[in-house]
What does this fold into?
Amino acid sequence: MPKKTIVLGVTGSVAAIKAENLVKWLKEIGRVIVVMTEAAKEFVLPKELAKTSGNRVVTGLFERYRKERETVEHISLAEEADLLLIAPATANTISKLANGIADDMLSTLVLATKAPILIAPAMNTDMWENPIIQENVAKLKARGYRFIDPAYGRLASGRMGKGRLASLGRIVKESERILEEKKDLIKKRILITAGPTQEPLDPVRFISNRSSGRMGYALAQIALDRGGEVILISGPTHLIPPSGAEVINVQTALKMRRQVLKNFKEADIFISCAAVADYRPKERERKKIKGGRTLTLELERNPDILKEISKKKGKKILVGFALETENLIKNAKAKLREKNLDLIIANSYSQAGGETNMVKIIDKREMVQSLPRLSKEAVARKILDRVVKLVWKK
Ligand code: C5P
It folds into this structure.
């Protein structure tokens, strides 16, 4: 196997003094080319990193141009990279990337590359917790940039807090995992529903549920990373959809049903992650309902989209979710049978919500795989590992 190329971006955080060790460790898993920002040079000398990496260190955007009239080094590096790792990443670099600014070699490279990008931030706790930085991190995550969040510990200022560069061991392990990541969904079309639906009562009110849409969006992101073509049919959420997915926004269960039926024919895999409202108000008032009197609402059943789809299953793979407040496994198994699913992801209400999830994957033989508490991205990877195995069997 030829060695993979890791382009390591080093920026001007105190943690840049660890760059030499990081390069040594990364060399165990690939060829390392270091790119440094101006500020990083305050903490470590380019010639030291050149010696350790065994490769030239790229610092300026125009240095090759000055020497050799070669103008496109950022493009050749962008193409060469199998992974672009930025460690340590400062608040400044993160914010530039979140806004598409390309004013030095590293930020230009980020815009130009198609390689996966892994960012390990390091900064003072207050800076890390600053809402602007958190928003920029969230924006980058939604665009498929991966992060190794900083660790808790003593910072350069002497204070304790979150902001230390994650351990080099974790950074190297995560890099290795990304380099070995499979492209096992190429040419597969994956239809995913996500988020809640909203069922209007009148022009300003609706019935809905607490689904954030994060699990479905994570599935869309990971399916894209693995080479799949993704159609994401989403109820209303506050999330930025992953770039590369075809996104169809809907509000109600009836609209979601229509879009699922329309797109199902072309799909190889359908993952029904949306929390579709089971009921909708029978009447939708044209004017805002007035207060003051007791109001009795009559609700009617929404169609069960997944059940309807399961009748047209053919050779397609169907994955459903079951969120339960009681008898999790029993209820999930019943839904698996009723909706003729290949897999059902059982999710206890007490474990759901937030950035992580703890689920069980149940297959057609009703074998239960219990996963530990994981990030929603990691859960998505486990689910797609199982889906891929089924694709191979068909
Ligand atoms: O029966 P229950 O609503 O718990 O089933 C959950 C599964 O069925 C989920 O995969 C959900 O996306 C799907 N579903 C649906 N249409 C509905 C209700 C649920 O497709 N009306």
The chain has a mean pLDDT of 93. The CA atoms of residues 17 and 43 lie 6 Å apart. The pocket of cytidine-5'-monophosphate is lined by residues 253, 272, 274, 276, 278, 302, 304-306, 320-322, 335 (CB under 6 Å). Residues 4-179 form a domain with the Rossmann fold fold (CATH 3.40.50.1950).
